[in-house]
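Exercise 7. Predict the joint structure of the components listed below.
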Amino acid sequence: MTLPMDDSPQIVIDRVTHLYRPPRGREVIALEDISLEVRRREFVALLGPSGCGKSTLLYLIGGFLPTETGAIRVDGEQVAGPGPDRGIVFQHFALFPWKTVRQNVLYGLEKLRLGREERSRRAQALIDLVGLRDFAESYPAQLSGGMKQRTAIARTLAIDPQILLMDEPFGALDAQTRRLMQAELLGIWQRSPKTVIFVTHDVHEAVYLAERVVVLSARPGQVKAIVDTGLDRSDPGLFRSRPFIDKVDQIWALVRDEALKAQAGHAP
Amino acid sequence: MKGPRDAWAMAGWATLPVLALAWEGVARSGLVRPFLLPPLTAVLERVWTDAAAGDLWRDLASTLYRALVGFALAASIGTVLGILIARDRIARWFFDPLISIGFPMPKIAFMPVIALWLGYFDTSKIVIVAFDAVFPVIVATAAGASNVERELIWSARNLGAGTRRVLWEVVLPAALPQIVTGLQVSLPVALIVAIITEMMMGGTGLGAAMTRASRFADSPGVFAGILEIALVGLILVKGMALVRRRLLLWHPETLAEATVA
Amino acid sequence: MKLAVRYVPLLLLALAWEAAARLELSDALPAPSAVLVAWARLARDGELVANGLPSLYRAGTGLILAIALGSVLGVVMAWWRPLHALMSPLLELSYPVPKSALVPLTAFWLGFGNASKVLAIFLGGTLPVVLGAFNGARSSDRALVWSARSMGASRVRTLWDVVVPCALPELLAGIRIALALSFVLLLTTELYAAQSGLGYLISFLGDEGAYDAMFAAVLTVAFLGFVADRLFLRLTRRLLRWRE
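Solution:
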C-alpha cells in the first residue's frame, strides 16, 4: 500500500461513540460523538481528567475495543482490530513475565518473515537503543519500573509501527525516572519520526512532549479544546522558560474545570 | 539468632527423636500389647526385609505407576478443559455445573461403578485416580486462565498474534503459577486415591500390601506400610515443589527466594 | 429460573445417559429411569435409612471430635509458642500421610465395627481443622488483640472475644475440607469392611448384581456429599456475615 502523498490526515476519528458495559449495573457513555484528526508523524497528547475516556479513545484507535457508532480510519481504511501499524505501550508495561527482556523484544519480530540473524540483530539494536544491553537476559521481575517501560517501548518499536499509541506510559514511574524517560522518548521520536498519540493527565508532560494538546472534557468524553504548543524543544531551559509556563497555565485553565467536574461527578 | 523463641523451635525438632524413642519405649515396656504397637525397630526391620526381598519395590512401582499415570491424565485433561472453560462461553456453560457438583462429591463413591465397567486391574484404578485428580486441576487452571491481564493479551495481539497463538503463548504461561498450584493439590490426591483403590481391589501395590497385613494381623506389616506410604507422599510433595521452582523460574516468588538466600 | 438454566447441562447428560442405556450396550449400564425406580424401592424398603443412620453416626461423631479437638489445638498452638514448637514437626510429618492409609490401621486396632471407622474419620479430619484454626488464629490482627488487652481483658477473654472470630474464616475453610474428607473416609471404611452403612449397601448391591439399585445408592451418597458441602457453605456465609 503506497503512502498517500497528499496532506490528508493519517488518523480520522469520525463521530465516535463508545459505551462501557460493566458486568453489573447500567452502561456508561464513555465517549460521545467525538471527532478528531491526527496528521502524519505528529506528536499529539490526549489530556483530561480521570474517567474522561482518553485511554478508551486510544484503545479504540488501537482496535482493542469496538465503536458503538462512528468510525475510525487509518490511512483511509477503517480500523477493524489490532495491528502492527499501531503499536501500543501500556502504563503497567504488560511485559510477558516469563520471558527475558530479549525474548520480549523478539516476540513481535517472530511474525515478520525475517531470518533469525536479522531478527536478533534488530532486537539487539533496540535493546541498545533503550540502554538495556546489560539486562537483556533478565526477567521483568528483576527490573525497575523505568527499565520495564524501556523494554516495553523497545518491544513495540521492534514491529516498526507507523503510529505509536502510549497510554500514560510514565504514570507508574517515580518523578525522576519520568523526567528522564520523557527526554528519551522525545529523542527517539526526533530521530525516527512516527505519529505518536500520548495519553496523560499531567499537563507539564503534555506540553513538553506534544506539538498539539487535545483537551478532553469530563465523561462523556468530547474534545473540549485543541492547543498548539509551538515550543522550541532544543532549549535546555525549556521547563523554566516563559512560553512553556504560559502554555501550561493556558491548558491547565482548560483542564481544571473538567477535573472539578469529574471529581464532583464521581461516586466512589 | 538466639533467644527463648529459637530454643523452643529447636526443642520442636528434638521431639522427633524423642517421639521415636517414646514409641520404642512404650512398645517394649508392655504398656500396650505388641500387637497394637510394634516397636519402631521391628517396623523398620520389616521395611528393610521387604526392600531386600523385592516386595517393597514391586508394590511401590505398582502404586506409583497408577498414581502417576492417573495424575498425568488428570493434568493434561484438566489443563485443557480449564483453559477451555476460562476462554469459551459455551464450554463454561456446559461444564460449570458439572464441576461445581462434581468437586464436593465424594468421587470415591463411584469406584464400585467404575470397577464394574472396567474390571479390577490397573485400568479401572487409573481411571478412578484420574477422575478424582482432575477436579483441582480444572478449577485452578480455569481460575488462572480467566485472570490474565487484559493488557498482556492486547500486547500480544498488537504484536501480531492470532487467537491460537494468544492462547498458547500468553494465556497458558500467564496461568502457569495457578495451574501448578492445582497440580500440587492434585498429586497427593492421586496418591491417596491410588492407595484406596488398591485397598479395595487387591493385587499389587502399597495399599494392597497394607490391607493384606491388616487382614493377617501382621502388625509390623501395617505400620511398615504407613511409613512407606508416608515417605512416598513426602517425596512426591517435595518433588512437586522442585518442579514448581523450575517451571516458574521467572516468577517473583522464585526470584525472591534466590535473592534472600 | 436462572438456577434451572444453570443446571441444564446435567439434564442433557442425563438424557444422553438414558439414550446410551437404551442401546443396551451392557448389563452394567442401567438407564436413569431404572435407577430412579430402584431408588424409590430402596427408600420404600427403608434400606436407605437403615444404612444411612449408621453412616451418619460414624461420620458425624468422627467429624465432631475432629472439629472439637482440632480447633482447640490449632488456636492454642497459635497462642502459646511452646505447644506450637512441640507439635509442629509432628503435624508436618503427618501432612503427607494419605489419610486413607489409616483405614487398615484402625481396622486392625479396633476391628470392623463403628469404633474403627469413627477413629479413622477423626484422625483424618483433625489435621485440616488444626491447620485452619492455627492459620486463622495467627492471622488475628495484633492491633485488635492489644486493644482488647489494654482494655483489661484477660488472656482467656481476649482469646474468646478477638482471636476466635478472626480465626473463623480459615477455621471454617479447614472444616470444609474435613467435611469432604469425612465422606471419603466413611466410604472407604465402609467399602473396606462393614456390615452396615451406605458404603456397605453399595458393595452389597453390587455383589448381588442389582446394578440399578447400586447406581441409586452411589448417586445418593454422591448427592449427599454435594448437599453437605453446599449447606456448610451456607452456614459459613451466615457466620461470616459481619465480614461483608
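Discussion. The mean pLDDT of chain C is 85.
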